[in-house]
TrEMBL record:
Gene3D superfamilies tied to this protein: YgaC/TfoX-N like chaperone
InterPro entries the record matches: TfoX_N
This protein's name: TfoX N-terminal domain-containing protein
Span of domain TfoX N-terminal: 13-102
Highest rank taxon of the organism: Bacteria
The organism of origin for this protein: Puia dinghuensis
């Protein structure tokens, strides 16, 4: 699983003040779950942000931002931001804060219960 460790470290530092952050391997990278909900991920050199449907269209108009397409389906409310779009601290913080703001209202995914064999 190849992802930008430096970017993952930046996200860890940005979320360090929060009490409930967990890291999980997802989307061929590493995801940061906040309060049990997917918030930010690192995949290759991009940051995946869960920003919700209300900010989605506006975000796609910004430079260095593209939609998330998973299994051929566009995932509304999720965007990838390239490394170029988060080089500056204020740009990085913008995306992190946008994802954290949506996280407060986002619903957690249903827990998958594994059946015993």
């Amino acid at each position: 699983m190849a992802f930008n460790e430096r970017l993952a470290h930046r996200i860890r530092e940005a979320l360090a003040h929060l009490p409930d952050v967990e890291e999980k391997k997802m989307f061929h990278g590493i995801c940061f779950m906040v309060n049990g909900k997917m918030c930010l991920c690192v995949r290759l050199d991009e940051m995946l942000c869960r920003i919700g449907p209300d900010k989605y269209a506006e975000a796609l108009e910004m430079n260095h931002c593209r939609p998330m397409i998973h299994n051929g389906r566009t995932m509304t409310g999720f965007v990838f931001v390239s490394e170029e779009g988060i080089k500056k601290k204020k740009d990085f913080e913008y995306w992190v804060n946008l994802a954290l703001a949506f996280n407060k209202e986002a619903k957690a995914s249903k827990k998958v219960v594994k059946k015993k064999k």
